[in-house]
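Researcher: We are triaging several targets before committing to wet-lab work. For this one, the compound of interest is zinc ion. I'm pasting the protein sequence and the ligand SMILES. What I need is the predicted three-dimensional arrangement of the protein with the ligand bound, expressed as structure tokens, so it can go straight into our comparison scripts without reformatting.
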Amino acid sequence: MTWSLLIKNGTVVDGSGAPGTAADVALEGDRIAAIGPNLAGESARTIDATGLMVAPGFIDIHSHSDLVYDKCPGAESKVRQGVTTEVVGMCGFSPGPIAPGRTEAVRDWIGGIGNKPPATWQTFGEYLDFLRGLGTSVNVVQFVGHGALRLATVGGENRPPTADEQRQMERLLVEGLDAGAWGYSTGLVYAPSVYASTEELIALAKSMAARGGIYFSHVRGEAGTLEKAYEEAIRIGEQGGVPVQIAHVKASGRENWGKMERALRMISDARARGLEVTGDVYPYPAGSTKMDNLLPPWMHDGGTAKLLERLADPAARERAIADCLIGGERWGSSSGSYGWDEVMIATCSRPELAGKNLAELARLTGREPAHAMMDFVLSERAGVSMVGFSQSEENVAIASADPHTMIGSDSLSLHSGPGPHPGKPHPRSYGTFPRVLGVYCREKRLFSWETAVHKMTGMPARKLRLKDRGLLKSGYAADLALFDPKTVRDEATFPDPHRHPAGIPYVVVNGQVVVDGPRYNAVPAGRVLTR
Ligand SMILES: [Zn+2]
């Protein structure tokens, strides 16, 4: 027997949640050929995994890397964490489809998150072909963003679709699924997804139900309206006849921290009624989004150009302040309330401002904090992202340990090393999976290694109905992550985010060794996965 790669002497944690066992793993090309103790046979290469756990490659069930793959197809910050598959097109954002004449609107809309995509495509299938041509180092599971469906039909306006536009959205969604999408996602706090009624979303779910589509929900508020928002997401799944994934489970804003357990109970209650509802969590008490999402939805009505007009209009600014400023001190948004020192500038065109919070920006500019923030969003033409500290550590632990949540980074793939770095992005781009392993499993002992790995592999694979990934099994795709349970840890921090983790010496994507000790081989090992 000749294998392409033999991994010897490791502890196999197979992703199912079953106890780890001492075993070797043999690969033949892009498949797992054999798993068992003391495998004997010729192999083109052997890796000695003594002291290491050998797991399926991690599946990042909630990622936004599709917004940056054109700049970073190697996806280094993800693969170095052990990630071999990313689920993208989340929170209502996806680079396609694009209607004729709407290219610039889509580029402006996505641009604030990190990068204006080239947008040389129109249909969803053309976009997927572009992705295949890029040759990413990770496998990609792409969803259709509801925001993209809206921009392609209704545009950026705050109004219901006409009957004709609704049919067009459904047709574009079905086209997307037929081209290789896995379902659709909403961002019900982001324009233009926020303008949809529940009925619009149920109709879209119905249109994809027969094709096995899944609904991923960034719900309509993770703060004061958390419970109502979960109710809506669950109803969309129930009435639309599709499984539901609740994105980045959290209770945002200190006044809402007490709602976490109730929200998790809503998920388990729905499951007890026979609905397939699950969630995902990132292991940090801070989130990240576009800074213009601090502004109320009416300011976004009509798209980015309209938003900028309103930011320049003193009367509109006063109305925003009246809507959002709480007690003269905190800023209330649909994603929770923040003190000015709890909002940090992540990325913008002026590198010297990255890492500063809005209280510091106000002092620097001699402006009231609300005006300093609006001046800034205006001068950056909304192309600025933020990190917001609005969650409790305790809730993050509770949500991570819940039996119905899996791990999703909610981040972009980036790369460290030489060259310019875009500001101070959320460290989850580099640290999510090793942080769960090193901090939540090893240090806090919230769950076993087997459960940690299951939440990153077998569980998301089952959610997606991936046929041959997420488990270590003979015949399955050769996606693997090898980590050292004694040393695995995240190194990225909020002040110093561009740092790769420790203790993950090998990552294999479709049989190709992408992380090879200190070396990173940014080869196009990944595939666009279709159902
Ligand atoms: Zn989201």
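Researcher: Any quick observations?
Model: The longest strand covers residues 5-12.
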